[in-house]
Write a structure and sequence with these properties.
The complex is a heterodimer of chains A (about 110) and B (about 110). Chain A is built from no helices and 11 strands. With about 110 residues, chain A is mainly β. In chain A, the strands form 2 sheets. In chain A, strands 2, 4, 5, 6, 9, 10 and 11 form a 7-stranded mixed β-sheet that branches. In chain A, about 35% of the residues are buried. The N and C termini of chain B lie far apart (about 40 Å). Helix content of chain B is about 0%, strand content about 55%. Chain B has about 110 residues and is mostly beta strands. In chain B, strands 2, 4, 5, 9, 10 and 11 form a 6-stranded mixed β-sheet that branches. In chain B, strands 1-3-8-7-6 form a 5-stranded antiparallel β-sheet, with no helix packed on it. The chains are: A mainly beta (about 110), B mainly beta (about 110). Chains A and B meet through β5, β9 and β10 of A and β5 and β10 of B.
Chain lengths: ~110, ~110
């Protein structure tokens, strides 16, 4: 298996623009997680899905953030409008049991 | 959710020295996981501890879970430059979500 796939790997955008991050979990995994990592706040769980259904989005920082999982092999995290403080590395992870497998991350820079 | 404190935040060691990072919780944990993140990389699962007092080894890495299941440690014997990275402990929530500790960033000086 190719592991968790994320795209793009790097994104530079201007404040106010919409940003869409994409994730393809490992086939057969029933949980998908979105994390944000910054120096100041560490690794934060934003939202997670079980069988494509959002279970807990309490970590989503603001209404500007939204996530969807239309099917078992694809999820998106959208930021609209983006702000400089959204600059971070965003990881997607999936799991079948308790171990989580992380994707390579998307490095987002909002100017 | 459950909170876990991880110390130290940073550790610099000479190659060949030992290294230990600790995680502590005020509540009893069902299990604890350890992950390693190389610079510029993503977290990679190392191990999960479930039983009280459990000790597991992976080559030069020794993982311990406290008798009260409130603390855990990761010890690396004779560090090598390949050990560089940030080591995180993580605890499970009510579902399968994880709460990560703040991590210990290990630098190994050649």
């Amino acid at each position: 298996d190719a592991g968790v796939i994320q795209s793009p790997r790097h994104e530079v955008t201007e404040m106010g623009q919409e940003v869409t991050l994409r994730c393809k979990p490992i086939s057969g995994h029933d949980y998908l997680f979105w994390y944000r990592q910054t120096m100041m706040r560490g690794l934060e769980l934003l939202i997670y899905f079980n069988n494509n259904v959002p279970i807990d989005d309490s970590g989503m920082p603001e209404d500007r953030f939204s996530a969807k999982m239309p099917n078992a092999s694809f999820s998106t995290l959208k930021i609209q409008p983006s702000e400089p403080r959204d600059s971070a590395v965003y990881f997607c992870a999936s799991s079948l049991e308790e171990t989580q497998y992380f994707g390579p991350g998307t490095r987002l820079l909002v100017l | 959710g459950q909170q876990v404190m991880q110390i130290p935040q940073y550790q610099h060691v000479q190659e060949g020295e030992d290294f230990t990072t600790y995680c502590n919780s005020s509540t009893t944990l069902s299990n604890i996981q350890w992950y390693k993140q190389r610079p510029g990389g993503h977290p990679v699962f190392l191990i999960q501890l479930v039983k009280s007092g459990e000790v597991k080894k992976q080559k030069r890495l020794t993982f311990q879970f406290g008798e009260a299941k409130k603390n855990s440690s990761l010890h690396i014997t004779a560090t090598q430059t390949t050990d560089v990275g940030t080591y995180f402990c993580a605890v499970s929530g009510s579902a399968r979500q994880l709460t990560f500790g703040s991590g210990t960033q290990l630098t190994v000086l050649p």
